[in-house]
């Protein structure tokens, strides 16, 4: 068909304050299974940087059933109403519970904005399916169990309405953007994403990463952070500086900071002041280069046995937001080809429990504005049981896609809050 787009295929060698630890049923290791998670990384905003010619609302199909004309009608596995992923996700299903109010975000004026259609931010998301067990010490219950072997993977562009995929018209079900076959190896963990390949040409593709964190050794007292660039071709308007996008070659530096109450400033901890991390020069990378931060002693997180505070993304009072006192990492992004040019600063200081409700817009401001500072969830995992807290290290994958950064936290597995 005329609008069918060729696909990209890459296999990469590669907090929240929890009350309790709810997880879906897990599959015991040993069966001929693989594990799969699916994201839509095409943003909803209908502008030049976000796929203006195609509604970024999809149906994901694995092993589709087709009619006599070869048009999908159902599937062995289906992720319908697949909207743009949330900026923050974890290796366990953070949206396992459905709100009785329905799905909403809160705008800059404090108003709840409800979705008028069903939404799924990922697959499996809140679908009740068998999930991955703890692998290499990591809780991977956000990945679904699937039979190992070859499977046909299809993404269909669908309208944003409440009609389930099998009931859509034949013409709509034929709007196939990605159609390929992937060989899922036994016991391996895969993350799939539909992405913009070339926004000016309205082309999309599939990125597939066979996760390597299940095979590599990590120290339990270290925080791991890695960045990759999953942007497609730079749009012409961004090349002419009429729209914002992370540059083709992005430099990244980092600091580790904490509030000094005597001066009301945030100095860097010794040895962690504006340290060079990397220059991202490749896209759709097949390897993630992690940098490490220390898991600080417990006294850094408490004041007189009281947990220090996060940056308040849910506080519309600017002064209230500035009271964060937990230690946090700060990353500075620049243009490698324009030395001294700072694109944005990202502070990992926010409370992950409410982050996705309040934070859903692009990271970059208009190019003619001064440097903007973004906040994202703190890299330290803070869990709670009663009045007892545990601070744990995490592994974090940061995926740059045009004008935003998607954060995926991989956390260690436990069935009870550690003491």
General description of the model:
The protein is mainly beta. The chain is built from four helices and 26 strands. The chain has helices spanning 170-173, 236-239, 318-321, 355-358; strands at residues 18-19, 33-40, 58-66, 72-82, 88-90, 104-106, 112-114, 122-123, 144-147, 149-157, 176-184, 189-198, 203-210, 222-229, 250-257, 275-280, 290-294, 302-303, 306-307, 328-335, 342-350, 372-377, 381-385, 388-392, 395-401, 404-410. Strands 2, 8, 9, 12 and 13 form a five-stranded mixed sheet that branches. Strands 5-26-25-14-17 form a five-stranded mixed sheet, with no helix packed on it. A hairpin with a 6-residue loop joins strand 20 (328-335) and strand 21. The radius of gyration is 21 Å and the shape is globular. The termini are far apart. The model is unreliable at 1-27, 45-52, 96-100 and 366-370 (pLDDT under 50).
- How many helices? 4
The average pLDDT score comes to 84
Structure summary, number of beta strands: 26
Radius of gyration: 21 Å
Helix content: under 10%
Q: Indicate the overall shape.
A: globular
Uncertain segments are 1-27, 45-52, 96-100, 366-370
Structural class based on helices, strands and sheet pairing? mainly beta
Q: In what range is the share of β-strand residues?
A: 35-45%
Query: SSE string, helix = H, strand = E?
Result: EEEEEEEEEEHEEEEHEEEEEHEEHEEEEE
Question: In this structure, how is the largest beta sheet organized?
Answer: 5 strands, mixed
Distance between the termini: 58 Å
């Amino acid at each position: 068909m005329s609008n069918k787009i060729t696909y990209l295929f890459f296999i990469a060698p590669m907090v929240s304050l929890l009350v309790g630890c709810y997880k879906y049923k897990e599959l015991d290791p040993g069966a001929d299974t693989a594990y799969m998670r699916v994201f839509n990384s095409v943003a909803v905003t209908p502008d030049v940087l976000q796929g203006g010619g195609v509604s970024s609302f999809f149906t994901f199909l694995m092993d589709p059933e087709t009619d006599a004309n070869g048009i999908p009608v159902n599937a062995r596995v289906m992720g319908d109403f697949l909207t743009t992923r949330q900026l923050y996700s974890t290796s366990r299903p953070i949206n396992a519970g459905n709100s009785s109010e329905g799905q909403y975000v809160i705008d800059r004026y404090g108003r709840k904005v409800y979705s008028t259609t069903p939404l799924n931010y990922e697959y499996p998301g809140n679908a009740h399916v068998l999930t991955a067990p703890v692998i290499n010490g990591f809780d991977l219950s956000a990945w679904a169990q699937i039979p190992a072997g070859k499977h046909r993977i299809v993404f269909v562009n669908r309208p944003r309405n409440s009609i389930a995929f099998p009931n859509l018209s034949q013409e709509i079900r034929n709007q196939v953007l990605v159609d390929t076959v992937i060989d899922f190896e036994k016991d391996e963990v895969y993350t799939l994403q539909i992405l913009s390949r070339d926004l000016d040409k309205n082309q999309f593709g599939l990125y597939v990463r066979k996760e390597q964190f299940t095979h590599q050794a990590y120290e339990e007292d270290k925080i791991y952070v890695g960045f990759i660039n999953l942007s497609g071709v730079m749009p012409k308007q961004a090349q002419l500086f009429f729209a914002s996008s992370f540059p083709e070659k992005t430099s990244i530096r980092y600091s580790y900071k904490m509030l000094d109450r005597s001066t009301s400033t945030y100095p860097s901890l010794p040895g962690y002041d504006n340290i060079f991390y990397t220059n991202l020069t490749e896209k759709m990378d097949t390897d993630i280069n992690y940098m490490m931060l220390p898991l600080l002693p417990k006294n850094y997180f408490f004041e007189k046995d009281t947990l220090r505070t996060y940056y308040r993304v849910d506080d519309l009072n600017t002064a209230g937001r500035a009271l964060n006192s937990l230690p946090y990492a700060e990353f500075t992004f620049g243009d490698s080809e324009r030395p001294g040019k700072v694109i944005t600063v990202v502070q990992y200081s926010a409370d992950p429990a409410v982050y996705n409700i309040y934070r859903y817009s692009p990271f970059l401001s208009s190019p003619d504005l001064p440097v903007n500072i973004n906040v994202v969830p703190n890299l330290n995992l803070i869990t709670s049981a009663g009045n007892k807290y545990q601070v744990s290290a995490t592994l974090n994958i940061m995926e740059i896609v045009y004008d935003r950064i998607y954060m995926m936290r991989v956390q260690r597995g436990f069935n009870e809050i550690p003491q």
